[in-house]
Design a protein that fits this description.
Elements (H helix, E strand, L loop, with lengths): L2 H17 L9 E3 L5 H8 L3 E5 L2 H5 L4 H9 L3 E5 L8 H13 L5 E5 L1 H15 L5 H4 L1 E2 L9 E5 L11 E5 L6 E5 L7 E3 L10 H20 L5 H23 L4 H21 L3 H13 L3 H16 L4 H10 L9 H18 L14 H12 L11 H11 L12
Parallel strand pairs: 1-9, 2-3, 2-4, 4-6, 5-8, 6-9
Antiparallel strand pairs: 7-8
Length: 409
């Protein structure tokens, strides 16, 4: 990266770090089950709410108990159940139209991160009806109170129930973008592992590694605090201990609950300490190819960690020691490599590939521009990289490329 751009990035990040104590971070109020939602809505005086979910969950009857409980409580429930894996502006607008038509006063995101992110953005639109989704995009573009947001995660990975972010796709450009604003932190989060029991093994695996990516990227960055480091370490330890169990036996409620806690802790950590280039590259792939976010992070994480080199030896060694993969006398480079190999081994044991299909050589230049724009200057990564340096990750992750890589042209 050019020295002037690097200096700007670090100055920007240092400014955010200085302001950190003054930002209105908060933790969502935890509810034991989605059955607590109608009572909470009644207490808030809300008589109609929008449920944002997807067709699969609703067709399987996963949301049926909540919908019935809402009806018994006399609370009208409008339902948007067409949320895709990578929700777009069009999805938000369709859901927002239902919100207005139903006279709703709250939003419930029931599903994975896509459903929760869509629900968050609907709430932002409801509070700022004169502004488009594109005008809300970016960092801290709006403040003030939103309609109550309830997050009911059915995956243990995104941590969206604890974050100030919503990730969407622009329908026109197919670019993923992020909305970061403190009011997007859900007011309530339902951390009930029973809602994750139906998640298939492969999605259990990839969403779990997504949570691991959140925890590690937050830990190795330059905006960590004692609090975020503690959350990240606990999340990493829980994931290494319980993700293989949840993958092998989806009915292991103890493992499912531990993973849900790990996802929540990782979300709390990265919403304060941010993520890194693994996420920036993964988001660009999701926007262009609809690559599932957890899968992209699972494949990319070892490549990105190795590329950071000596800048991450110390923090990765600390994590390796916490996992008993190394001891305090182990050299940093060796300890870091043991941790990375531990991630690769867990991926392999759960059937996660080490390559992604469908990456086209002609797209890499544009994809790397998107990743550069997302990551710089916001993400306080351990080592700065510009778009040309980021191109390597698309080449590394691609199973085949029909043209020479940009680095060899």
């Amino acid at each position: 990266m050019h020295p002037l751009k690097a200096a700007y990035c670090r100055a920007f990040q240092q400014g955010f770090r200085i302001l950190y104590p003054f930002f209105p971070y908060r933790a969502p109020e935890a509810l034991e089950s989605d059955g607590d939602i109608p009572e909470t809505l009644s207490r808030l005086g809300v008589r109609a709410a929008l449920l944002v979910t997807n067709e699969s969950l609703r067709s399987l009857g996963v949301t049926a108990a909540l919908e019935a409980a809402m009806e018994r409580a006399g609370i009208a429930c409008a339902v948007y159940d067409r949320t895709p894996g990578n929700p777009s502006i069009r999805d938000v607008e369709a859901a927002y139209a239902l919100y207005r038509e139903g006279g709703c006063g709250a939003v419930i995101g029931f599903g994975g991160g896509s459903c929760i992110d869509c629900a968050k953005t609907v709430a932002a639109r409801a509070a700022h009806p004169s502004r488009s989704v594109r005008q809300l995009a970016g960092n801290l573009r709006f403040w003030g109170q939103l309609p109550p947001i309830f997050a009911v995660p059915t995956t243990a990975g995104t941590g969206s129930e604890a974050t100030l972010a919503a990730v969407l796709v622009d329908d026109e450009t197919r670019r993923k973008f992020t909305i970061n604003a403190f009011p997007l932190i859900p007011r309530y989060a339902v951390l009930d592992a029973r809602n994750t029991m139906g998640l298939p093994p492969f999605y259990t695996a990839t969403t779990g590694i997504d949570a691991l990516t959140h925890a590690i990227e937050a830990y190795i960055g330059q905006s960590t605090t004692r609090e975020t480091r503690a959350w990240s370490v606990e999340a990493v330890k829980l994931i290494f201990a319980y993700l293989p169990r949840a993958y092998r036996d989806g009915n292991d409620l103890e493992a499912r609950q531990a993973m849900l806690r790990a996802s929540y802790l990782a979300g709390m950590s990265f919403t304060r300490a941010y993520v890194g280039y693994c996420h920036a590259v993964a988001h660009s792939l999701g926007g262009r190819y609809d690559t599932p976010h957890g899968l992209a992070n699972s494949v990319l994480l070892p490549y990105v960690l190795r590329a950071y080199g000596s800048s991450v030896y110390r923090p990765l060694k600390e994590l390796a020691v916490a996992l008993h993969l190394a001891d305090r006398g182990t050299p940093g480079a060796i300890a870091a490599e043991r941790l990375i190999r531990g991630i690769e081994r867990m991926n392999r044991d759960m059937g996660i590939p080490d390559k992604l299909s469908g990456i086209r050589a002609e797209d890499i230049d544009q994809l790397s521009r998107y990743a550069d724009r997302e990551g710089n200057p916001l993400y306080p990564v351990p080592r700065l990289m510009d778009r040309r340096e980021l191109q390597r990750f698309y080449v590394m992750a691609a199973d085949t490329l029909d043209e020479p890589s940009p680095q060899k042209q």
